[in-house]
Amino acid sequence: MPELPEVETTRRGIAPHLEGQRVSRVILRDRRLRWPIPEDLDVRLSGQRIVLVERRAKYLLINAEVGTLISHLGMSGNLRLVEIGMPAAKHEHVDIELESGLALRYTDPRRFGAMLWSADPHNHELLLRLGPEPLTDLFDGDRLFQQSRGRSMAVKPFIMDNAIVVGVGNIYATEALFAAGIDPRREAGGISRARYLKLAIEIKRILAAAIERGGTTLRDFIGGDGQPGYFQQELFVYGRGGKPCKVCATELREVKLGQRASVFCPRCQR
Predict the structure, then answer these.
(1) What's residue 215's pLDDT?
(2) Which of this chain's residues are annotated to bind DNA (predicted)?
């Protein structure tokens, strides 16, 4: 599933080609996503100039002069730029054609993504209760420490809770906990302020590094320019259960936490 770095990579790839451009038409080939695409999307968006492309958590906000298209890539979706008229393959559900001659094409084999229209996106029910962005000053170790008090849940699902902080998905939670030396099974409420300060620093560092390297391509993800991400080459623990730790050579263990696979080093993490 595309996580925050992959979505931000997509935003950076498509924004220069969308911002300031006018939409000539929208082609809907299949409306059946996680929620149906509005059948009048062509009427709402065609003729409008795209003002700004933003990201909030894992949602892309394509702001037009009147209204905003909220897009989520789901488990296997991607947005990329193609020439208008390029034949559409299977699972290429939407084309947003621009006067520049390019089209923003949405592909989603599993159809778990979304394309919704909103007049007030930041107050949309999907975005309204989200926590702070991890790469801003609103997120730090003090917030993690305060929010964790009295919480008996494991620390890994705690930092993956979008009400605590957005966009820390399975890959980057696993990597940040390893970098901070914290066992993902530890109770969130039993971790000290000092260790949360370290964890927040590592979350920021790892997410920023992943964005600069174009995200992580494990299977489906490609950026807005059609290129894969390269951060997978720097993964220390994610997806490496049973292999030796890159730091101490201890065999990495894999457990289930919050119904997600979690890999950790029993020696480096405590």
Answers:
(1) 60
(2) 91, 110, 151
Question: In order of start, what are the domains of the chain with their CATH numbers?
Answer: 4-118 (3.20.190.10), 141-264 (1.10.8.50)
Give CA–CA dist 230/191, Å, rounded: 32
Predicted confidence (pLDDT) per residue in 239-267, tens digit: 999 999 999 999 999 999 988 899 999 99
Q: Give the active site residue among 3, 97, 175, 202.
A: 3
Active site residue 260: yes
Q: What does pTM read for this prediction? A: 0.88
Q: Which residues are documented as binding site for DNA?
A: 91, 110, 151
Each residue of 58-74: pLDDT tens digit? 999 999 999 999 999 99
Of the candidates 257, 261, 252, 131, which has an alpha carbon nearest to the alpha carbon of residue 203?
131
Among 22, 25, 240, 260, the one annotated catalytic:
260
Six-digit token pair at 238?
Answer: 């994610």
Q: Which residues carry a binding-site annotation?
A: 91, 110, 151
Query: 11, 56, 58, 195: which one is catalytic?
Result: 58
Q: What six digits make up the tokens of 198?
A: 């370290």
